[in-house]
Fold each of these.
Amino acid sequence: MSKAPVFLGKGREFAAQLSAALARLAWIFFLVSLPVTSFPFFPFEVGGGTLVRPLAVYPMLVLLFLVVLPRLLTTPLPRTLLSFFPFVLVAVAATLLASLQGIEAAQGVSVAARAVRALLTLGLGAAVYLTVVLWPQSREDLRSSLRWFYAGFALALLWGSLQVFYVVRFSPHWFDLLSKIQEYISTRRLFPNRVSGLTYEPNWFADQISFLLLPWLLGSILTGYSAFSWRWRWLTIEWLMLGWAVAVLPFTYSRAGLIILVATLLVSVLFFRSRRETGSGENRRLGKLPVRRLAEGALLTVFLAGVVYFTGTKNAFFARIWDYWQRRPDQGYAQYLAGYFEYLGFGARFTYWQTAYNMYDSHPLLGVGLGNYAFYLEENLPEQPLAAMPEVLRQIVPDVGRDRLVTSKNFYLRLLAETGLVGTAAFLAFLTAILGCALYLWLSPGPENRFWGTAGLLGLIGFFLVAFSFDSFAIPNMWVVFGFITAAHRFSSP
């Protein structure tokens, strides 16, 4: 009997084992590296000239070939993809049609180059979502994924904690040392008065903590489910990480990040915290009253306000949040409130938002195409004086050598401006499908399903808020949240 078939069989078995081991290592690296968003060592051909350069792209490319593409052909796909793929098709169609309009280049960037970059960022986001959805094959895979996900954020929080020292008490030597190390992690130097973590800037780090990390930690605490076996009475790893994250986040001095933190914690206390039951059978009664929850919410608000005020004393710009109200208004309340937002530096952002809406109003069906916001900026600016907003003026009369185009800085308005009603409706259908998965998990029996459902709903609340301050498809945060919800729904059957 020939030994060749046996040898070939063992060879295939070894290749399969090696492929599985490589895929698992790539998955671990993918999860651990998520906090690194602007990795400096990126080839220019695959996004090396952009701000968003997730380190997770490298292991994701391995996973695409070893896991995602094979399972797309062999594994039953979640129904959320039935609403996601139409959005991708609409976005591609809108972009290709816009490229035929003969739009002139802006700041040396052509419409074709911008379209290619925009479609690549959308493809990157879609790849992250599919990777997170399709890699887990069991509930144990999900639990293991959470542990590695937390490990990556533990490294990010540790690096952020080291930065807190020079924010509280500045040390040039310590700051220079960390800045030199940061050059190997991010394309941007550290801020001497704010914490950036492993990201490009403090706001990105705050979004990671409040939107990407906190929902899973709070979901664990609210449901009593932990991804780790270690527990000391009520204390779990998730409790420790929550305290750590809440302590570090204020030092980012990100107003959006703190708003999301406060909103998520208050919603958790008031609506998602499980109620204790006393008695048995039909005599069970709820042991927690709404009045008590309101009181706890008020105490939490006071505590968080104290933390924000304390950290704000170290940053004059952040302290503007309350400094403005110490002045006496000498005009109407509406004008005084408008002046407050100007004082906080939101004037330029409101102008970008209004401009995006004007683009949608002019191109309501399919928008102006992905990435084309900057090409239509000047003609859609609202009729208002721009002398007080040098940031906007620089976009109209840019500096020599400047080739970074402005964006709307609002995800909702970007959808409307660049994909129109059709694209926005398609993306909202996708969000509705994700919400349906989270609600199903939340209402399902069993602590594990309730954990994923609770965390998923909190993550969607975080997305609703954070989408007012970002507009990039390339940042992995929302795709990881959506992916975890979808993956958990795949294994929600008892």
Amino acid sequence: MKVLVVGSGGREHALCWAIAKSLRCDRLYCAPGNPGIAEIAECVEVGAEDLDGLVGLARERAVDFVVVGPEAPLVAGLADRLRESGIAVFGPSAAAAEIEGSKALMKDLCAKYNVPTADYAVFDEPDAAKEYIRAHGAPIVVKASGLAAGKGVTVCHNVNEAYAAIDHMMTEQAFGASGDEVVIEQCMTGEEVSFFALVDGAAAVFFGACQDHKARDDGDKGPNTGGMGAYAPTPLLAPALERQIMDTCILPMARGLAAEGRPFRGVLFAGIMMTAAGPRVLEYNARFGDPECQVLMTRLKSDALEALYACATGKLNAIKPAWRDEAALVVVMAAKGYPGSYEKGTEIAGLDAAAALKDVTVFHAGTKRQNGALVASGGRVLGVTALGATVADAQKKAYAAVDRVRWPGGFCRRDIGWRAIARAG
């Protein structure tokens, strides 16, 4: 097959890395890609949100199969456009992707189809939102309903913080139109698990779980980010819990979306809070997580391309994903200042030395070539990933590789995987 991966981040590098290993992949393209992806695929300068350009590229190169990485083109309808052109695509329709594009819709569907989640209310007017906060008190969670690159969620420890979050999203429009509507919900406590299932209409197959680290700083302190690192497998998920989440959080939503005329075809990513009362859905995403995809693809033993293609073509029952016994862990290296303002164009060196270590792969997330040098071009820039016998072993290898990267303009958390390591004693 000729395969096109859409996107330019660490998730897309991991997808290209896994797909390139498949015997079924004859030619691999990525649009727009990045310097790391360029080592294993032909990168084409077409933006991930240029729907006309992407459909034209797929036709021009006679692409057999398209894998869409980011959420924005899915919400905009890229998968619909490709299917209309007769091209197989991994990724849901715009109608199905609205499960991520509108948190308000997602919460309403959870209520309708009895999916366990936090109590909530939806507002499109700041004063009414603040009145709800005043009545319910804190802690409380304020979320921009629309897409906000993983940054539109504020856990508010007091009422004033919640008021400020409303002003930030709705009045100051920090996330543009995505904050015109907000979801305010009960604050759930517990550990969060990223849970993935391949879904084809009403059928679903478990496709791995891991734990992400959203806070910027060690000890889960600091502002929320798109994710500073992840590890898999998670010790929280015994087989019985995995089945419970499939039965209560994945299958009811897959069937509900089909019943709503929004059949989902692609990967359904549920953020699950493991509360004292059982698993509860925090959110759904319509694509692989980043940086979760890096550890999932590193641990995947079976053919990634076969699994994604089977899901896209209605043959999900023909696959049974197989996973390595080892743990995988990714450390995200980000530009200093992220998730706030940060400098672009700082030079990065030492990646060959890092990748030369056994069981280490360095995924590019926000890099570009500039005058022959590799420089940072985004907030989250590298995903240094390692396999190990245990999470602690994988952590040790990943940080050994991080220490070989020469990038004064970057930083990372130094405690990725700490919960699993502490639990293991």
Amino acid sequence: MKRTLLSPILASFSAERVEIERSAAAAWVAYAEGKEEEALKGMRSAADLEDSSEKNVAMENRLWPMRELLGELLLELNEPAQALKELELSLQTARNRYRGFYGAAKAAERSSDRLTARAFYEKLVALCSHADAERPELVEAKAYLAQN
């Protein structure tokens, strides 16, 4: 196999990406084991590392932004106000994400911030305006909007 100048860059990117994913997986395992502080610390570490990592569109292949996962964990830990902050941060860089809009709406709703919840549910419904399926989160968003 012929080495190129890009090989060290790809290796560095891959090692960093693996560490981010490892840290996130360990955080969720800790959460499942009831180690909430350890879970939060690990997920924050993964989110911060991802935020500080060098970005390259050609090499970017995230399935789930770590900051969004941090928001999801904070929701699980019943910290909706903090979850909303993290989810809004995630949506600044990972725009128009279904799970990001839904998570932010749930966090706002659980924080009793009806205006923000409504805004995120509206974005979720708009994002899916041409979808041919009704996912549970979308059904929930439409029900919330009909009531509020």
